[in-house]
Amino acid sequence: MTALFGVRTRRGAYAALWALTLLWGSNWLVLKAALESAHPVVLNLQRTWIAVAFLFAVMAWQRRLRWPHAWWPIVVTGFFQTTVNFGSTTMALAEGGAGRTSVLVFTMPFWTLLIARLVLHERLRGAMWFSVGFAFAGLVLIVEPWRWEGQLAPKLWAVLSGFGWAAGTVATKYYQRKHDLDMLNFMAWQMLAGVLPLSLLPLLHDYPPTRWDAGFVALLAWTAVMSTAVGFLLWIAILRHLPAGTASLNSFAIPVIALLSSMAFLGERLTRSEWGGIACVAAGLAILAWQSFAAARRGEAVRPVPTPAEGG
Fold first, then answer.
1. Average pLDDT rounded to a whole number, residues 302-306
2. Is the bond preceding 243 in cis, omega lying within 30 degrees of 0?
3. Strands (E), the chain
4. Of 20, 35, 234, 297, which one has the fewest beta carbons inside 10 Å?
5. Ranges 79-93, 213-227, 263-277: which has the least confidence
6. What predicted TM-score, i.e. pTM, was given to this entire model?
7. Alpha helix segments (H runs only) across 7-107
8. What whole-number distance in Å separates Cα of residue 55 and Cα of residue 60?
9. Across 17-115, where does the E strand assignment appear?
10. Which DSSP string corresponds to 122-179?
11. Mean pLDDT score of the chain, rounded to an integer?
């Protein structure tokens, strides 16, 4: 595992981190394109099941496949991280823009701060309050709750996705305190547990069939294997050489990549209110990035650290 993807040194880990950031940033565009051929619920099931199969195959190959020691951590984390986060992201992308959705989903660090305060009793200190304030103001400006017509539903789905991601992050940290977790084993099992409830939906609803062609197969393979499964394995390899706080700084660049690429390739346009909201979210993320960078240089633990999923 140490030499996975050729990541053997700290310099190699930084190069891999750049590649991973581009991979996860572009995934929003890939998901949006794939939704032209598949219903969002069906697409989410397809990509998650393929990712699960890939991760379990890797564990079997490495002879690390074993039953979890405790099921509650798997079920709780899987519900928030996979059922809520993955499911809500595809629903948001089905009707909303990729860039706008990514920004709303990446309010995750601010939700994490608030949930960790309640569950993990981690205090918000100093500039963290400013980051949360900026994020809340940005959230209101982007969602525009005073406008009930148009694009409100996908925005709410995106906010729910960010909340689910944050709750999954806090759940992972909570159970790490109580159990000795093999992160590859834990994340693969939680993904399996989280996709099972979603797998019941096609039995209850009649979704339109997927339009299979070479283009869709390529998009599905990219988002399932490369972005979700390989991205996670690459993240684990990076963490063997970089502090988690330093590595997690890539989360601040991902929505920027998604927004710029969606504007360039999909012609996405934002209102003045949305631009103002994005500026507020960016200011809040910049404060967190500065704090994370400063803490990493001092060798301190950085909170919050996103869970090793592609964030979409």
1. 48
2. no
3. none
4. 297
5. 263-277
6. 0.81
7. 10-34, 40-61, 72-78, 87-95, 98-105
8. 9
9. none
10. PPP-THHHHHHHHHHHHHHHHH-TT--SSSHHHHHHHHHHHHHHHHHHHHHHHHHHHS
11. 81
Task: Retrieve residue 220's tokens.
Answer: 């599905």
- Tokens found for residue 179: 């159990």
At 153, which amino acid appears?
A
Return d(Cα 15, Cα 247) in angstroms, integer. 11
Q: How far apart are CA 186 and CA 173, in angstroms?
A: 12
Give the amino acid at 272. R
Nearest to 217 by CA among 58, 50, 57, 4: 50
51-99 residue pLDDT tens: 999 999 999 998 888 898 889 999 999 999 999 999 999 998 887 777 7
Give the type of residue at 274: E
Cα separation of 185 and 308, whole Å? Answer: 12
As a residue count, the chain comes to 312
Tokens of residue 283, six digits? 């200011």
